[in-house]
Amino acid sequence: MSGRTVTAERIAETLGPVTVVPVPIPADCADGFEAAYWRRPAAILDPAVWRACSALALIGDAEREAGMARLSADLASGEWRRRHGHLLELDEFDLGYRVIIA
Questions:
Q1: What is the pLDDT of residues 60-96, one digit of tens each?
Q2: How many domains in the chain?
Q3: Is 102 part of a structural domain of the chain?
Q4: Which of 1, 19, 35, 77 is the most buried (most CB within 10 A)?
Q5: What is the pTM of this model?
Q6: What is the pLDDT, as a whole number, of residue 34?
């Protein structure tokens, strides 16, 4: 568990019994959080996009630049599509987002 996440069990310790509801992200998600781009990874290369994504903005410059270079190369070579092209066939994707109802 990262420092930015809290488990449902931990939340239940404070709030009591909870119901956990999965929130799959639609392929055409128009929101600007990082998971919204799962089906259009080239968008993440745009500084205006990644700067608005807290997870990407929190990464050190050198690490982010290296990751962006790898993504750019994988998109240009077709490697991203070879490895992840099956995602392009999905209408939604469960990336672990949950609504917790207490």
A1: 999 999 999 999 999 999 999 999 999 999 999 999 9
A2: 1
A3: no
A4: 35
A5: 0.76
A6: 84
